[in-house]
Amino acid sequence: MDRFREFRIRDYHALFQKRELSVRELLEAFLDRIHDVDEHIRAFLSLNEEGARARAQELDRSLPTNGFPPLWGIPVGVKDNLCTEGLPTTCGSKILHNFIAPYDATVVERLKKAGAIIVGKTNMDEFAMGSSTENSAFGPTRNPFDLRRVPGGSSGGSAAALASLEAPLALGSDTGGSVRQPAGFCGVVGLRPTYGRVSRYGLVSFASSLDQVGPMTRNVEDCVTLFEVISGSDQRDSTCAPYPPFSRQDIPPEEEIRKMKVGIPREYFSSGVDGAMVRKIEEVLDGLRKEGVECLEVSLPHTDFALEAYYIVAPAEASSNLARYDGVLYGLREEGKTIQEMYVRTRTAGFGNEVKRRIILGTYSLSSGYYDEYYLKGMKVRTLVRNDFEKVFEQCQVLVTPVSPCFPFFFGERTRSPYDMYLADVFTIPSAMAGIPGLSMNCGYENHLPIGLQILSGPFREGWIFGLALFLEKMLSLPSPLPMVPERS
User: Fold this and answer.
1) pLDDT 10s digit of each residue in the chain, 489 long?
2) 82 and 202 Cβ atoms separated by less than 8 Å
3) In sequence order, what are the residues at sequence separation of 6 or more whose Cβ sits closer than 8 angstroms to the Cβ of residue 190?
4) Which of 7, 330, 346, 416 is found 20 to 30 A from 306 (Cα to Cα)?
């Protein structure tokens, strides 16, 4: 697989065009890799081997003569909370352990239309509630850079699959940082689009005003391509903005990037951030200054309140969305003497502890007498956080921050303290609350662990983000990740 380490989509297509590689051969190479290393990584919950092989043979029989569709013949891993027709969609939960999706999510439809091959469904924290993938009912995913550490969450399966080269592309979902934080922990690229830029139709809901589907890749160029495919309006999702798909034509040229102003929010470089991480990002900023990019300090004064507000708003929405899992229509059902007893037995057996904790928190903050005291205040703080970003983007085009204040932590290190676990997302939650786009990319290593750098911009300004990310990728010239994963002997 090492030959594919630095490959981009265009490199695979070049080999297809010259008939030096068939789609079936490429698929088998990735399936072999999965069989070799996934017993250690556990990035996938289920594989679509039979369907993927049939699709590969179909594509090999119809090699395009006038250019390839953007994802033609490329294997893609899909997070297990995206409905994929005929395949399990468990959301990492026992309560959906036997659920087979009867239809495709809009993003999955668009992948297939663009020629992609769905290779399997990736592991995740149960219903996307977690920052380490330790909350999956089917066991945790491990970080390919250090199997003793977490890959981040909740899209940890997708990030780990990319880092260990089990798939060249993947989809995740981001409610409070679930694409960007695992991308940072695993040294890959992950984009949370502007809220409404990508359809949520077929994405199993956690917190509907925050959830977004995001592309995850091994390099920025492929992230642009994947985002072009999945973005755009969708009549089946009323929250999807009536805008056309993103186009790489919206990315400013390099000379415009050199003229941009980069904001450095002082609240993201406080004493709670790992010193090695701060030093590496400051080195990157110094590199930008040498290239002529203006970097200026800015302030987002309500940053410290965003985490608390998020853990009121998101659980409140989750408590409503997850009420549908009651053992009646689909999923797990534990019989009882009365219907109330059946509900209790089903939800007690089907949900894990973190999901139960958030349902209880959300139900409490929405209950009579407490709505104004908690949920309403949480929404007011959300407005203040959004206003902070609007004011800052009057001074600069993008912000650069760490993705997380810490490196990937060891398994069990934070499970006893939910608040410590929640702090791993402290730098991704504010932008999610504001509904703005953000991208996570690797900017270096410390003790063989990747360091995630986050780029934020205003709503629908993904072009600025990609422009700076491509500029940084070229400036830093880091090798694509391929950690030393033990292979099957």
Assistant:
1) 788 999 999 999 999 999 999 999 999 999 999 999 999 999 999 999 999 999 999 999 999 988 999 999 999 999 999 999 999 999 999 999 999 999 999 999 999 999 999 999 999 999 999 999 999 999 999 999 999 999 999 999 999 999 999 999 999 999 999 999 999 999 999 999 999 999 999 999 999 999 999 999 999 999 999 999 999 999 999 999 999 999 999 999 999 999 999 999 999 998 789 999 999 999 999 999 999 999 999 999 999 999 999 999 999 999 999 999 999 988 899 999 999 999 999 999 999 999 999 999 999 999 988 999 999 999 999 999 999 999 999 999 999 999 999 999 999 999 889 888 999 999 999 999 999 999 999 999 999 999 999 999 999 999 999 999 999 999 999 987 766 665 554
2) yes
3) 155, 159, 172, 174, 179, 180, 182, 183, 184, 214, 215, 216, 217, 223, 439, 440
4) 416
d(CA 82, CA 104): 8
**Catalytic sites, residue numbers:** 79, 154, 178
Q: How far apart are CA 237 and CA 201, in angstroms?
A: 6
Cα separations in angstroms, 488 against 40, 144, 199: 9, 15, 39
Number of Cβ atoms within 10 Å of the Cβ of 469: 26
CA-to-CA dists, residue 158 to 36, 173, 189, angstroms: 17, 10, 11
| CA pair distance 265, 278, nearest whole angstrom | 13
User: Could you give the CA distance from residue 135 to residue 3 in angstroms, rounded to a whole number?
Assistant: 34
Q: How many residues does the chain have?
A: 489
Q: Which residue has the tokens 């250090």?
A: 146
